[in-house]
């Protein structure tokens, strides 16, 4: 069945360093890949998304890359700040808006 | 913050009871999806409603059911509650089935 694997489960970086989170999806028909940030006790917030016809997308300090052949996509955060600390979820969608989420990565940015 | 709202924010029920959760979609959105998020896990897709009809369902039993109203708000109903139903229930709205989804704040359900 459809599955999304996310790594690492926890990530600790120093302020100013870069952070990379990787996801692998199982269904090659997946065509939409959003990333959500969820702070403790709050709703998941969309931070960036990419569609299967694009290999890379960037928004200020955040970028996502997609490798359809290998069926994996990654989130890159540069110049990390303490307010980037949160749980990050990747997701993949084949159709009908059914998002399959990864298990989440807890990012801690140390001042 | 998105314009998606949910009620109630918290709920405590006992096993066997029934619960109804509500979601108001963002203005201009006609699609609502429901997810269950267990503690420490990613959200799991329950089902989606588009123009008042169910438009896809995840691996949840029939005791999870839903409705969408003409104003595109939605309800999630869970019958015969089990302890494992304790979770954060999130709804997400989008403008077209399959497009970007924006989440509400969730309803935290505790089943005792």
Topology:
The complex is a heterodimer of chains A (111) and B (112).
Chain A: E1 4-7, E2 10-14, E3 19-25, E4 32-38, E5 45-51, E6 56-59, E7 62-67, E8 72-77, E9 86-93, E10 99-101, E11 105-110
Parallel strand pairs in A: 2-11
Antiparallel strand pairs in A: 1-3, 3-8, 4-5, 4-9, 6-7, 7-8, 9-10, 9-11
Chain B: E1 5-7, E2 10-13, E3 19-24, E4 31-37, E5 44-50, E6 53-57, E7 64-68, E8 74-78, E9 87-94, E10 102-103, E11 107-111
Parallel strand pairs in B: 2-11
Antiparallel strand pairs in B: 1-3, 3-8, 4-5, 4-9, 5-6, 7-8, 9-10, 9-11
Walkthrough of the structure:
The complex is a heterodimer of chains A (111) and B (112). By secondary structure, chain A is an all-beta fold. Chain A has strands at residues 4-7, 10-14, 19-25, 32-38, 45-51, 56-59, 62-67, 72-77, 86-93, 99-101, 105-110. In chain A, the strands form two sheets. In chain A, strands 2, 4, 5, 9, 10 and 11 form a six-stranded mixed beta sheet that branches. A five-stranded antiparallel beta sheet of chain A has the order 1-3-8-7-6, with no helix packed on it. In chain A, a hairpin with a 5-residue loop joins strand 9 and strand 10. Chain A is globular, with a radius of gyration of 13 Å. The termini of chain A are far apart. Chain B is built from no helices and eleven strands. In chain B, strands 2, 4, 5, 6, 9, 10 and 11 form a seven-stranded mixed beta sheet that branches. In chain B, a hairpin with a 5-residue loop joins strand 7 and strand 8 (74-78). Chain B is globular. The termini of chain B are far apart. The mean pLDDT of chain B is 93. The A-B interface holds A 4, 6, 32, 34, 36, 42-46, 49, 89, 91, 93, 95-104 and B 2, 4, 31, 33, 35, 40-45, 48, 55-56, 58, 90, 94, 97-106.
In short:
The complex is a heterodimer of chains A (111) and B (112). Chain A is mainly β and 111 residues long. In chain A, 0% of the residues lie in helices and 57% in strands.
